[in-house]
Amino acid sequence: MQKNQIVEVEITDLSYEAMGVGHVDGETVFVTNALPGEIVKAKILKAKKNFAFAKIEEIVKESPDRVKVPLRQSVQGGLASLAHLTYDKQLAFKKRQVVELLKKAHLDDIEVADTLESPLKTGYRNKAQVPVRTVKGQLEIGFFRRHSHDLVPLEDFFTNDPEIDRVLVAVRDILREYHVPAYDEEKHAGEVRYLEVRRGVATGDLMVVLICLHKDFKGLKEVTDAISEIDGVKSIFLNHNPQKTNVILGKHDYHLWGKKYIDDKIGDLTFEISPQSFFQINSSQTPRLYKLAIDQADLKPSDMIVDAYSGIGTIGLSAAKYVREVRGVEVVKAAVKDAKNNARLNQIHNAKYYAGKAEELMPKWADEGLKTDVIFVDPPRKGLTPEFIDAAVKTGPEKVVYISCNPATLVRDIQLFMDQGYTNSLVSPVDMFPQTPHIECVTVLKRTN
Ligand SMILES: C[S@@+](CC[C@H](N)C(=O)[O-])C[C@H]1O[C@@H](n2cnc3c(N)ncnc32)[C@H](O)[C@@H]1O
């Protein structure tokens, strides 16, 4: 296959990134937005030695599972790259990904539950970070076209809470009104790089974060005053990111107006969330995810539990009433401060949170002789480290409840726990990210000796 060649190809599978997979002359071709069962004419965009990437020119035979997507651009841009597949089939796709990863690791005897559907299928995101750039002489918000930094202007982001889109558009209009320059990546000049908006779904509180090249700019006071007038906005920050980087947030947040956090609820608990703290994105599904994890832990009043990768303490604090003691560890200091605060706010007195890397604190605790009954882990995509797993096992937990946002590292880590005498019989995918290929799972590892 060669660049710009048009090939006719039958799509036989979906890749983990939700690209249609087909074969031409024994070589694999990945076609954006194509679905299994379809025959498409596709244009080769990039050809490598044994495989190629392509985009659809014409659908010759359409899948009955194809959904006509209202926002085709955003789907192509990767914002919601599964949106062209019916929701039922999205759930089945996610389950199958987990089944196949387990099979590849020769762990076929572990059962995979049906993916737990999300109550909200669109408009579920309680946080958005969108790029700000100048397009045709005007400041725009939108998304970067796939594999590029070309901004496609957008007002309806499809998976965002519509209240968040309302505020994004209102802030965009204020920036235009006060002639604030958008960031220019090539010249490393201008001001606003990204807009972040977070919403406490239970309270309606909205936080706006202007992610900027400089700490201050001409008109910042007027812009802040105007944003504070937007209905529902309770908190405004400036995040300073002076680096030439693709990383969205800089290290420092400057409080501009209002509260220093927003409030939200999970179940009957209230949480204060500051700008850089992790909070589960899909508020409609989070209580169901935590319930599954806590039910599977089968907690006892005498239990000592660890909440590792604890964020603002949501899992440990949700479990605290069932157990004797909770100890949490989290690397982001502001999140640990939030966790301590949240324990106080909810009058929970048996939970302590510590700042540090889980792979460093867990070995320290194990060396100090800590004994645990249940360990909850909820790491980022790269999963756990062997050092963490060794130390966790040393504290003797009967169960390790693993919440994972990357099934590939989950399967790797299940094997590591199995090597240390733990068993696993069921992985439950939970759909936290409808319309995207991202997969969240919950599973429990049980000690056998
Ligand atoms: C997927 S989030 C889970 C947060 C929380 N359990 C929740 O449900 O909201 C992962 C968390 O791990 C934290 N983290 C990342 N690397 C870490 C490390 N090496 N040690 C401890 N925490 C870490 C991140 O800051 C983030 O808060």
Write structural notes for this entry.
InterPro entries: MeTrfase_TrmA_AS, MeTrfase_TrmA_CS, NA-bd_OB-fold, SAM-dependent_MTases_sf, TRAM_dom, U5_MeTrfase_fam. Keywords: Methyltransferase, S-adenosyl-L-methionine, Transferase. Pfam families: TRAM, tRNA_U5-meth_tr. Belongs to the class I-like SAM-binding methyltransferase superfamily. RNA M5U methyltransferase family. S-adenosyl-L-methionine binds at residues 280, 309, 330, 378. With 449 residues, the protein is of the alpha/beta class. It has three domains: 6-66, Nucleic acid-binding proteins (OB fold (Dihydrolipoamide Acetyltransferase, E2P)), CATH 2.40.50; 111-117 and 282-447, Vaccinia Virus protein VP39 (Rossmann fold, 3-Layer(aba) Sandwich), CATH 3.40.50; 127-266, OB fold (Dihydrolipoamide Acetyltransferase, E2P) (Beta Barrel), CATH 2.40.50. Helices cover 25% and strands 32% of the residues. It has ten helices and 23 strands. The protein has helices spanning 72-76, 87-104, 162-177, 220-228, 286-297, 314-319, 333-345, 358-367, 386-394, 407-419, and strands at residues 6-14, 20-24, 27-32, 39-47, 51-61, 111-112, 127-135, 138-144, 151-153, 192-199, 206-212, 233-240, 252-258, 262-266, 269-273, 304-308, 325-330, 351-355, 374-377, 399-404, 422-423, 426-430, 440-447. Strands 6, 16, 17, 18, 19, 20, 21, 22 and 23 form a nine-stranded mixed sheet that branches. A seven-stranded mixed sheet has the order 9-8-7-10-11-12-13, covered by helices on one side. The site of S-adenosylmethionine has 20 residues, from helix 6, strand 17 and helix 8.
